[in-house]
Design a protein that fits this description.
The chain is of the alpha+beta class. The protein is built from twelve helices and nine strands. It folds into three domains: about 110 residues, Acyl-CoA dehydrogenase/oxidase, N-terminal domain (Butyryl-Coa Dehydrogenase, subunit A, domain 1), CATH 1.10.540.10; about 110 residues, Butyryl-CoA Dehydrogenase, subunit A, domain 2 (Beta Barrel); about 150 residues, Up-down Bundle (Butyryl-CoA Dehydrogenase, subunit A, domain 3).
């Protein structure tokens, strides 16, 4: 059993590392302070092909897999988690590619892959966080259009996206609740559609997050993903499977970035006549940090590889995200501790990384949801105890 990356995969990761380390540091601290989305960095990344990694070649992408996408995400978050969120610019392309009509794929995938447009996917609602079936945003057919009403909360790319994939209830009367939902694509600037940027986030402040409102937003029926109603639940579940692995890669990246900085600091900083890294207690902490990073990385890559092979292991995916999130929080916390007072100051990156890490335990399924999924899989879905 060979767990090593291919030469191509190593080159992709190295290219992502080189780009991120050279470009992100120029804007990371300022974007964090200003809560500014680094659109200029996104454009550069798009020109280099990073936005179309998993998009098929016939639609302008590189035609690679979720594993390669995760490798790039890890390197981006290793350099800076907030700026690294630019790799979420294709968020929703997964649904279009796997479920969209050919016309929809031709319309939206090439400009996403080329770094010309940004997508957002709107699922979460103010009163419906992890409960998909509590969503109330509606889409009612009106001739050749749909009228969308409702609101969405905590939407990544909300104010910078050119198009938003909105999960709506299209058939509330359907007895099978799994068939009540659909995705519709709303274009930026549509009448009745507004996006309000959220401020004051604990971390990933360079990532754009917004509240979206829909007031009789008229959308052509041609924007219904797949062309038929009722497939929204199936589509969102596939998206969750992919993006929980991507979120796990984010956790690995922020933890590795914190470890990088802790290693550099403890080797240079002297106390009592020798480098901090020379003390056994510090060495033990560094060893634990490195072990947690490595364990989360292997689980994340295995889950991504399984998806690329067409084998979706729900428990494995949730395990990868759960472990990566928990380890990211612990590793970044220890990095702050190792830097002491300097670690508490915003001129040192570990303070920012510590704040950024927490989101991995929350979005794309909170850690409690991951535990529920894992328990159901290992106990058996028919277990009634």
């Amino acid at each position: 059993m060979d767990f090593s990356l291919s030469q191509e995969q190593r080159e992709i990761a190295a290219a992502a590392n080189k780009f991120a380390q050279s470009e992100f540091n120029k804007v990371a601290r300022q974007c964090d302070k200003e809560e500014r989305y680094p659109k200029e960095i996104w454009q550069q990344a798009g020109e280099l092909g990073f936005m179309g990694i998993f998009i098929e070649e016939r639609y302008g992408g590189l035609g690679l897999g979720i594993l390669e996408h995760s490798l790039v995400m890890e390197e981006f978050w290793r350099a800076d988690p907030g700026v690294g969120c630019i790799l979420l610019a294709p968020f929703g392309a997964e649904i279009i590619q796997d479920f969209g009509t050919e016309e929809q794929k031709q319309r939206w995938l090439p400009p996403v892959a080329g770094g010309e447009i940004i997508l957002a996917t709107a699922i979460t609602e103010p009163n419906a966080g992890s409960d998909i079936f509590a969503q109330t945003t509606s889409a009612v057919r009106d001739g050749d259009d749909y009228l969308i009403n409702g609101s969405k909360q905590f939407i990544s790319n909300g104010t910078v996206a050119d198009y938003v994939l909105v999960m709506c209830r299209t058939d509330p009367g359907e007895k099978n609740r799994l068939k009540q939902y659909s995705f519709l694509v709303v274009e930026k600037g549509a009448e009745g559609f507004s996006a309000d940027k959220l401020h004051g986030k604990m971390g990933i402040r360079a990532s754009d997050t917004a509240t979206l409102s829909f007031d009789d937003v008229r959308v052509p029926a041609a924007n219904l993903i797949g062309g038929a109603e009722g497939d929204g639940f199936k589509q969102v579940m596939e998206l969750f499977n992919i993006n929980r692995v991507v979120a796990a890669a984010q956790g690995v990246g922020v933890a590795q970035g914190a470890l990088d900085r802790a290693l550099a600091y403890t080797k240079e900083r002297e106390q009592f006549g020798r480098a901090l890294a020379g003390f056994q207690g510090v060495q033990f902490t560094l060893a634990e940090m490195a072990t947690k990073v490595a364990s989360a990385r292997q689980l994340c890559r295995l889950a991504a590889w399984q998806i690329d092979q067409g084998r979706v292991d729900h428990a494995l995916i949730s395990m990868a995200k759960l472990l990566a999130g928990q380890n990211a929080v612990w590793v970044t916390q220890e990095a702050v501790q190792l830097l002491g007072g300097y670690g508490y100051m915003d001129e040192y990156d570990v303070e920012r990384f510590y704040r950024d890490a927490k989101i991995v335990e929350i979005y794309e399924g909170a850690r409690e949801i991951e535990k529920i999924t894992i328990a159901r899989e290992i106990l058996g879905r028919d277990f009634k105890g």
